[in-house]
Amino acid sequence: MDEKDMKELLKKAEVLIEALPYIQRFNRKIIVVKYGGSAMLDEELKRQVIQDVTLLKLVGFKPIIVHGGGKEISRWIGKVGMEPVFVNGLRKTDEDTMEIAEMVLNKVNKSLVTMVQELGVKAVGISGKDAGLLSVTKKYADGQDIGFVGEIAEVKPDILYDLLENDCLPIVCPVGVDAKFQSYNVNADDAACGIAKAIKAEKLAFLTDIEGVYKNPDDKKTLISELSVSEARDLIGAGFIGGGMLPKLNNCIDAIENGVSRVHILDGRIAHCLLLEIFTNKGIGTAILGDKESRFYHE
Fold first, then answer.
1. Tens digits of per-residue pLDDT, 108-127?
2. Kind plus residue range of the DSSP H or E element containing 288
3. Residues in the chain with pLDDT < 70?
4. Is 22 helix (H, G, I), strand (E, B) or coil?
5. How far apart are CA 135 and CA 154, in angstroms?
6. Is the whole model's pTM more than 0.85, yes or no?
């Protein structure tokens, strides 16, 4: 073997050794992955995300995927000659739109199940309606009626524990029901956050279409790699956080304050972003942690 080949092999060994402390720390711990955005539309990126989550499962993590499908829902709404309507960033969901949304989300769900099982891991696709996982109330947008959009009222995670106990990878689509068993579309970020809080997940990872949290969104050099809850609140209070990042960061804070150890915001458009964030010392996105939690291998 020549020197160049040996150096390449040693680099691979170094990568595995760098991952070792993370594998040790998070072995048998639950991680919730919210999967959405552009990474759901690109087949190669979709395959890489599923490879990442499957690898986490095979090295001892207990992952749960909560997926969205907003862009796919909009595409199908257009196919049937309807126009998607949004109020303050929330999809207005009438009866016809709800029917399409549930159909599309279930289609996406089973396609992800198939991809996981092709890699040799048992997966089970469910919705928030199954076993009473997601109970909701009607959500309003600044007082405006936006139809069948749900606000999570309660999460009953028993079915998730059962699936994890039976060595399955649960894949959840964000549809819930109210007290009268009416179906509601639920924001996937909210669903992932609610589930992570209910099961006191070790980690919650949001796959998004941006690299993470910036102090100045116009300056890519201001990406923040680690952020405490109090620092996150300061950024929000100072007006640095706006747009779609504001509710996402508030979800992160809520999760941390309700038992989740660490939350990650990652760019799902980057190949194998989950592995790069979780198994490398530097990481590539933004990690939000409790004020009392120490930094972990990020010196």
1. 999 999 999 999 999 999 99
2. strand 286-289
3. 1, 281-282, 292-299
4. helix
5. 5
6. yes
